[in-house]
Amino acid sequence: MTTRRAHPARCRAVGLPAALAALLVVCVLSLAIGALPLAPSAVWHGLADPASGAYAVVHQTRLPRTLLGLLAGTALGLAGAVMQALTRNPLADPGLLGVNAGASAAVVTATALLGISSLSGYIWFALGGAALVSVLIYAIGGGASSTPARLALAGTAVNAALYSYVAALELLDTGALDKMRFWTVGSIAAAEPGTVLRITPFILLGTVLALGCAKPLNTLALGDEAATALGAKPALTRGVAIAAIVLLCGSATAACGPIVFVGLMVPQVAARITGPDLRWLLPYSAILAPVLLLGADIVGRVVARPSELEVGIITAVIGGPVFLLTVVGRERA
Amino acid sequence: MSAPANRLATRNLTLGYDHRQVVRDLEVEIPDRSFTVIIGANGCGKSTLLRALARVLRPTSGTVLLDGKEIGAHPSRHVARTVGLLPQSPITPDGITVAELVGRGRFPHQGALRRETPQDRAVVERCLAETALTDLGQRPVSSLSGGQRQRAWIATALAQDTELLLLDEPTTYLDLMHQIEVLDLCARLHAAGRTVVAVLHDLNQAARYASHLIVLREGEVIAEGAPDAVITAELVGRAFGLRARIIPDPETGRPLVIPLPSQVTAK
């Protein structure tokens, strides 16, 4: 028996290797492009050969930067896709539910008031802040009986309050926060090998939890009644999904600062290829988000030579119009 | 407490939302292999009862029994393989195709990591065929007519492959032609050996399609049994506050309810 294959199914199967190839290309470019441009062969030597002149620049700065972009991009893309599924709101973003803002506020508090200035110190604050806000939003948003609109509104309100708090602390305490200046706009430029090692376990755990949620989230998308009748456990699934979001957003924000719009844009593009099936949408988002993040970072390195623009600024510049187009597109549809 | 003779039954079932009691001390059994229709005026608790039977609503007190055991005490996957539900207003994900939607009904038969098996695909094909949607499998659900969309949702519940199928107001919001289409489908599913339980608004449709009626008023069962025995002018008056004359349906011989104007006395 030959089943007529779904159009999306064909795209999905072909698209995955293509997306992986794009990721590989962007990683190589990210290693090659910078103040000291390297040919691809030099990149290879720089990676593998300690005697090479490029070894230091590749290993000390570009490799950590690229790996951080990879990790943070995956984290934000996955978190965005999980959020959009959880809230049934295609405009959801790690920013929308206030999770990034919670992590930022906690990091800024730790830096300004407690004098904690190392990632290994404030990553716990970032995770705590992200978790606190997630629980708060879940409670304000109505818990198990929350509606997408109510959740989104709760997130927007908490977001506004927390970013005012961050801005107030920055104005009051310029000294301690000065070295955080790049962090607050979102940057992967200052990545060190330690940064990458520090956040890898959190992002790995968050990724496993997020991908594990794909199937139950697929049933939750049909409404809580249908999900329960299908044998899923909506409250448990929401809990695990929120834990994944906290781990992914908290650690990405701790390492890079709040990077906006990546979690919004990537799942939307991915959904055009995969359709709404999260078993495909989540892996696609995890692969395409670092392509966007590293791509934006590379653009930031070359547009303002000899200086650099932070990746958070570039994603905001691209993301703003995409966000508006999405809203307009949905109004028309 | 006597052991129920049927797979699905309730004992002293009290249901409500927050502090509002909707159903009180209800004892009903769903006869196995019946097409049971629950009817009653708006707010009488018929959908609430169905939701409890589907384990979607937790009882305030009392129990829903599945195979003689409290439904909540069964593993949720076992319940999902035994009782299927078409909710009153399910959510259609953006861009989902008919076949994909129906495939999500296979959830209780799949492991956490296992992908779809050939058996899953075969069941989906069969459910599409049963609901006459085979040719529309690759179409987005959003592009279907109301009746087709409802059939797609019924196919999703069918893909659960359960012996009992509960449908919460499956004909509401459909025009008459699509209502009949959906009810005919339910009748076919019943004839194929399933126990079908539906909440319906239309008395005459209930009388025509049901093999067993449960009539609710203000959260209590006021009549149950075969439509011929249950539907009387007196009952319609008690259940709906409606004066009516009952005649045999010229097409089926089942009872047909003719509502009378509220001001005029029946002859």
UniProtKB/TrEMBL annotation, chain A:
Membrane topology of this protein: Multi-pass membrane protein
Gene Ontology molecular-function annotations: transmembrane transporter activity
GO biological process: siderophore-iron import into cell
Major place of residence: membrane
Any one Gene Ontology cellular component term annotated for this protein: plasma membrane
Membership in a protein family: Belongs to the binding-protein-dependent transport system permease family. FecCD subfamily.
Protein name: Iron chelate uptake ABC transporter family permease subunit
From TrEMBL, chain B:
Coiled coil stretches, renumbered: none
One GO CC term, this protein: plasma membrane
Keyword Nucleotide-binding: yes
Pfam families: ABC_tran (PF00005)
Recorded topology in the membrane: Peripheral membrane protein
Keyword flag Disulfide bond: no
Residue span, ABC transporter domain: 8-243
UniProt entry keywords in alphabetical sequence: ATP-binding, Cell membrane, Ion transport, Iron, Iron transport, Membrane, Nucleotide-binding, Transport
Protein name (record): ABC transporter ATP-binding protein
Provenance organism: Actinospica acidithermotolerans
